[in-house]
Amino acid sequence: MKKRKSNINPSRRKFLTGSATVAGVAAASALVPIKVSYANHTASDAKGLPGFIKWKKRSSLIIHSDKTMETHREAIGSSVITPIRHIYIRNNMPTMTDAQIGKKSQWKLKVEGVKNPKTFTLSQLQNLGRTTMATVLQCSGNGRGFFPHKPRGSQWKTGAAACVMWTGIPLSTVIKACGGLSGGAKYVTATGSDMPSNLDPKKALVERSVPVKVKKDAMLAWEMNGVALPNAHGGPLRFIPPGYFGINNVKHCGKIAFTKDQSQVKYMKKSYRISPIGKKGSQYPSCWEMPVKSWITSPMKRSSSGNVSISGVAFGGTRKVSSVSVSTDGGKNWKKAKLIGPDLGKFAWRQFVFNAKLKPGKYNIASKASAGGKSQPKLRMENRRGYAHNGWRDHSLNISVS
Ligand SMILES: Nc1nc2c(c(=O)[nH]1)N[C@H]1C(S)=C(S)[C@@H](COP(=O)(O)O)O[C@H]1N2
Ligand SMILES: [Mo]
Prior knowledge:
Blueprint: H1 12-18, H2 22-29, H3 43-46, E1 61-65, E2 68-71, E3 89-90, H4 98-101, E4 108-112, E5 118-121, H5 122-126, E6 131-138, E7 161-170, H6 171-177, E8 187-192, H7 201-204, E9 207-211, E10 219-224, E11 227-228, E12 238-240, E13 253-259, H8 266-269, E14 293-298, E15 302-303, E16 306-315, E17 321-327, E18 335-336, E19 338-340, E20 350-358, E21 361-371, E22 374-375, E23 397-401
Parallel strand pairs: 4-13, 15-23
Antiparallel strand pairs: 1-2, 2-3, 4-5, 6-7, 7-10, 8-9, 8-13, 10-11, 10-12, 14-16, 16-20, 17-18, 17-21, 19-20, 21-22, 21-23
The ligand Nc1nc2c(c(=O)[nH]1)N[C@H]1C(S)=C(S)[C@@H](COP(=O)(O)O)O[C@H]1N2 binds next to β3.
């Protein structure tokens, strides 16, 4: 098989002519994740998108900067899994290029803190085990745009989140292949390979430690929503600790270590700490498990009177959503919504719908989810960097019914 230039080739014609034969491609696809073309892609669609994500759908994204793009509230869709061309991007370091990554099957993952430390290639991992799991990928700062003290960082509203179907290898299988843990580990520390070599690792290495208990459900993914993990989303290999905030889902993962201590890099020690406004430090809680959250995605602004289907998404982080309530009067009265669509497990989000009978007028519509015995609070938890917002009031919508 020819060396592939990129995971995602927006031009179908190039795809067909660039690979020997269609039959050859079909044979090869039995061994490697299928290469997908985006037939609907047009040049005007891509206008304004930076080169590394030209294949995304421009009209579904709000561009905050050249490294942060958010999904429009209504573009999350209503079929549980978020379309890959709509999914947000958040880069601390630039996305690795094909040239930097090299041959994807030869990508290396180092494993430490196990009885027999080993380095695996991606193709070795792909032959060792396999699992598929849906999780919510959400930036710690999703909802920052609602904080009145205007914290530094992207002013995300609801769109730094997606529900993704990952395929890869369970972390527990990797541990087993290395003879088990060497003992005493309190954390799983995952390291990205995306830091340019001229930078200081203490300041720029994307390395995150999460409690070692995630080994029960965590995985290393090489496929996302049925396609080989695009570079922009951390290809060819990404660490997925389900139910944990985005930053812990380390892209371009080159090392997994079972460690006694948390990483000492800035992104672990200083950033992503939930501290009171005006305070900072590593003594404050890290952005780890996501709290229960929901928001309405439809209707967004207007509706005609009569029967109105109010729908949205709800997730519980590491806990299953037990119920969602909807209010059409700014939170005075709540009624149970119906959970719809397939249940893809506790780490995925659920769609919900509530059929309201609304007369012409103005309404404030809100949703409030519960999971693991906890419900969303009314208000945000004020904090310096605007992390972990799950208050229902700020996420409510004002609609006019005519
Ligand atoms: N190696 C690496 N992993 C990373 C990042 C990064 O810059 N480098 N960004 C993190 C942050 S802050 C978030 S919110 C998610 C974003 O994932 P996405 O760009 O695939 O949506 O990846 C996380 N993992
Ligand atoms: Mo993030």
